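Q: What residues go here?
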């Protein structure tokens, strides 16, 4: 595989390393000041003129869209966090190439538009989220990407698993004094700040059920969320004949990323093999919707439609930012979101 384009918001130290290693044709930096600094750094590498000659630096949203659509890549991984990922994702789909979808917000905010664009331009969508990759693998027959129209009538329900986050088992009273630093310590996954907070509130699972609704063209009432603290079963599909198929692997994002890149083939992986004997047991429980109401709010938004889902996502992004900046408490995040969904003023 050859890397043709790279993208970041402002992590130019890492980008510089990657440019030296992979020599991409195009690098997109969202932050304009960071983009200018990276241009200066690259132009000052006098000893390696190939980097200067071969790599072009672009900036802003226009640069992200260019990286997503004009690099000539056969596979485009879209992984921009938040609603900012929508325009580049649509641009990538319009190339008619494979899009490995790693950010859920485009489907949450504009799921119908995203899926219609994929269909119009005959683009493949391969989900990268471990849960949706698991469902995809349970449905895949080795020949087709999304959608799977021949399988829809066979599905009774999709079962999304959730780790429960760092505060599983705690009461709402105990959550009142939770700090951002505590919420960022996830027991199983090493993720970015926003998605880690979403995992702690169970909003991440709520956004995933909306994503699954669009990806697999299924009613939200046919999507069940269960808590599975070991994070070994990444999701399941229950079929109408009573059979349930699950995908199991260690909690390591390299596995679903690799599958999206190599599908329909399976290649040797850097991830450790799963040792079922050492696990001893796998446990499951129902989510506590009273203590973690974000999941309930997501179900409600999913049933109401696109506008409610977009409102849910926007309010959640703002609430997480306020919490990370110590301006509201942990329990105030779902309160903020619920006020937005009801159309009342927020904090």
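A:
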């Amino acid at each position: 595989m050859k890397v043709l384009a790279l993208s970041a918001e402002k992590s130019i130290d890492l980008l510089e390393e990657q440019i030296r290693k992979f020599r991409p044709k195009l690098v997109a930096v969202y932050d304009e000041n960071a983009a200018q600094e990276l241009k200066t750094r690259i132009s000052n590498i006098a000893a390696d003129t190939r980097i200067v000659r071969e790599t072009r630096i672009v900036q802003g949203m226009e640069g992200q869209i260019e990286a997503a659509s004009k690099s000539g890549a056969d596979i485009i991984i879209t992984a921009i966090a938040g609603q900012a990922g929508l325009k580049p994702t649509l641009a990538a789909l319009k190339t008619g190439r494979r899009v490995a979808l790693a950010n859920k917000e485009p489907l949450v905010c504009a799921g119908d538009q995203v899926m219609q664009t994929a269909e119009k331009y005959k683009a493949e969508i391969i989900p990268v989220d471990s849960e949706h990759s698991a469902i995809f693998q349970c449905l895949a027959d080795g020949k087709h990407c999304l959608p799977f129209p021949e399988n829809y009538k066979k599905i009774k329900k999709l079962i999304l698993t959730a780790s429960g986050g760092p505060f599983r088992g705690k009461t709402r009273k105990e959550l009142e004094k939770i700090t951002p630093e505590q919420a960022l310590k996830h027991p199983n996954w090493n993720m970015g700040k926003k998605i880690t907070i979403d995992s702690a509130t169970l909003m991440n699972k709520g956004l995933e059920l909306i994503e699954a609704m669009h990806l697999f063209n299924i009613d939200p009432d046919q999507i069940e969320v269960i808590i599975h603290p070991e994070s070994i079963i990444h999701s399941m599909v229950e079929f109408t004949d009573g059979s349930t198929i699950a995908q199991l692997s260690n909690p390591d994002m390299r596995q679903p990323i690799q599958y999206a890149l190599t599908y329909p083939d399976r290649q040797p992986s850097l991830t450790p093999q799963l040792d079922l004997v050492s696990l001893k047991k796998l446990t499951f429980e129902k989510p506590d919707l009273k203590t973690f109401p974000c999941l309930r709010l997501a179900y409600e938004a999913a049933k109401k439609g696109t506008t409610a889902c977009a409102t849910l996502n926007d309010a959640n992004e703002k609430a997480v930012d306020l919490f990370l900046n110590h301006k509201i408490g942990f329990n105030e995040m779902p309160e903020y979101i619920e006020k937005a969904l009801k159309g009342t003023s927020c904090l």
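A: Context that may help when evaluating the design: The radius of gyration is 21 Å. The mean pLDDT is 90.
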